[in-house]
Give the backbone structure.
Amino acid sequence: MSENDQCESEYFSSGPVQYRKRLDAQFYETPCEEMAMSLLGKILVRRLDDNTLLRGRIVETESYLGNEDAASQSFKGKITPRNEPMFMKPGTAYVYFTYGMYHCFNISSKGDGAAVLIRALEPLDNLNTMASLRKQFRKCSKTQMQNKDLCNGPAKLCISFAIDIKSCNKQDLTSWDGMWVEEDENSKLIDTIVCSPRIGIKCEKIWQDKYLRYYIRDNPCVSKIEKTKMNELKYSQIENIK
DNA sequence: GTAGTGATTGCCT
DNA sequence: GGCAATCACTACG
């Protein structure tokens, strides 16, 4: 993609695409909750086998803190073959299979067994490819799919970005050529982050109710908007944000 | 728009 | 054997 290409987003495109820096090991060397907030607005890039580059802005994340967190797969320090990437170097991709047919994509953070679930993206580049991947996956696509629905859920974005265990699990996002996260100037335009309880977890109420989900306010690509049980944080007021 | 439910299989106990 | 950090379809208002 050349510097003058326009980004395809119908929502927050703001002119020519700039050169963007890949997030490095220092970025990921961050406590889980801070990293989950810092990832909002950054750009996930996936290189397919045919060299197509898919891009999407991260608009929704969740923290899974590890040892102490009853909703985390690594609760009480439990290590299994499946959750091993949660204990690997910060910035490692953790992809797991769930509900018999879906994948979820996480990035390990600083802290034993801690990781950030990527829950939704705002599709930016090569939306046709994403739509085609989603279409293949569905049995009968009766309902018309909108662009905002391409990646508005953890399993949907894995389908749209061809993220599965075989191709992506345990990959180092600071060095792998198949997928990485980029800095983006537009992420500085975010003014408010919304915090809410995490989606779809069942555990002790105290952990179920913790505000460990984060999303960009007013972004149409977020998976689910809370009407209650939410806090708004001003981006500028959040300490340690990278 | 939203509440209810079936799909589908690898992992963990 | 139970169930999962989900999705999409159906029915109903």
